[in-house]
Specification:
Layout lengths: L8 E7 H14 L3 H12 L7 H22 L4 H22 L7 E7 L2 H8 L14 H13 L3 H8 L1 H12 L4 E5 L2 E12 L6 E9 L7 E6 L9 E2 L12 H14 L9 E7 L1 H9 L7 E2 L13 E6 L1 H8 L6 E5 L1 H18 L2
Antiparallel strand pairs: 1-2, 3-4, 3-7, 4-5, 5-6, 8-10, 8-11, 9-10
Helix pairs in contact: 2-6, 3-4
Length: about 350
């Protein structure tokens, strides 16, 4: 049986890679070390491969259902069905246990106080932890959970950390409930379109039509980064509220078009035109860099930049255009609008100051 000290202190040796990822996530999501680890354990254990007994139970149900369905048209002799089931489960068990072994060459010490929920699950006596069959110590199981979590993509890790919040929001979207979302000390009413990733697949965003809560302002397309929402103060409004959360098909098409043009990160920004001069190398960079790429066009004959060599016009939010072209350096020159050109110049000056003596 797994045992732990009275204070529920858990001591771990994690790989250097896991140490780096956990520290990065704690900073990215503003969580204390103990809060982050406890959240990972409680929200990941039910879906992790490290929970070998749970995965085997799922596989057994899957096999039983398959055999029942097969018996209807192609009866399988019971002895053969039982042998096949045992064989598949045995191989799957071997695969799972092998995947839960992590490098030990470089270890970084971590310790935390397990939450009451996690301590009861891993170290409780009634019922005992189902993973005792596969791990010598409770700490080995915790290490396997954390190491597996750290090998997920950033978007998958965020989905673990905010799994309960995502489930709540997805339920509201499905039921077409109006949402009251709090973020940055302000509250907004949102008719939600869905929860979508950014183009780099790093963060989730709640996307929809929104306005300040209680105001008569017109709704605008908006996106709220999931990790920046105050989920404790956010809620669904009564289904009997005068306004439901349902979006018309035309509104869904509008949001889809905006997402395609701007990306979910920049839905709040209005679309503007920017004129850019690209060198030959800059144009090659544009052809290679597909992420959040704004469309380029030829300046209108009536514009101040008509007929100029290497000059293009693009439409999008200024934040999107800056985000996309900033790392082009001298291969892209912003000609207008003035505020965007000045923003580039100021940021390049500040970067240069770092290297000047």
């Amino acid at each position: 049986m797994f045992t732990i000290n009275r204070e529920n202190r858990q001591y771990l040796n994690l790989s250097a890679y896991a140490d780096s990822v956990l520290r990065s996530d704690a900073q990215a999501y503003g969580l204390e070390k103990g809060s982050l680890l406890n959240r990972v354990i409680s929200r990941f254990k039910d879906r992790a491969r490290a929970s070998v007994s749970l995965r085997l139970a799922e596989k057994e149900k899957e096999l039983d259902a398959g055999f029942r369905n097969a018996d209807e048209d192609f009866p399988i002799p019971l002895p053969y069905a039982l042998w096949m089931k045992d064989f598949v489960l045995s191989e799957y068990e071997r695969e799972l246990t092998a995947s839960c072994v992590y490098p030990k060459e470089v270890n970084v010490g971590w310790d935390l106080r397990l939450s009451d929920e996690n301590a009861a699950y891993i170290y409780g006596k009634e019922p005992p932890c189902p993973e005792e069959k596969y791990y010598k110590r409770g700490g080995d199981y915790v290490k396997a959970l954390l190491e597996e979590y750290c090998r997920l993509s950033p978007l998958e890790r965020e989905a673990v950390l905010f799994s309960r919040e995502i489930a709540f929001l997805e339920d509201a979207v499905e039921k077409r409930l109006l949402l009251r979302v709090s973020t940055g000390g302000k509250a907004y009413e949102v008719r939600a379109f869905g929860i979508l990733p950014d183009s780099q697949y790093r963060y989730h965003y709640l996307v929809g039509l929104s306005k300040p809560a209680g105001s008569r302002d017109p709704e605008i397309p908006a996106s709220f980064r999931l990790s920046r929402i105050d989920h404790q103060r956010s809620r669904t409004l009564s289904p009997n509220n005068n306004r439901s959360g349902r979006l018309k098909n035309s509104e869904k098409r509008q949001l889809s078009d905006l997402i395609s043009a701007r990306g979910v990160m920049f839905l709040l920004d209005r679309t503007q035109k920017a004129y850019i001069r690209l060198t030959e190398e800059g144009r090659k960079m544009y052809d290679r860099k597909l992420n959040l790429r704004p469309a380029l066009g030829v300046p209108d004959p009536s514009s101040d930049h008509a007929g100029q060599s290497g000059v293009y016009v693009c439409s999008g939010s200024l934040n999107q255009i800056e985000y996309y072209f900033f790392d082009f350096g001298p291969e892209a020159e912003i000609l207008s609008p003035k505020e965007l050109r000045e923003s580039f110049a100021e940021k390049y000056r500040k970067a240069l100051e770092v290297y000047e003596e």
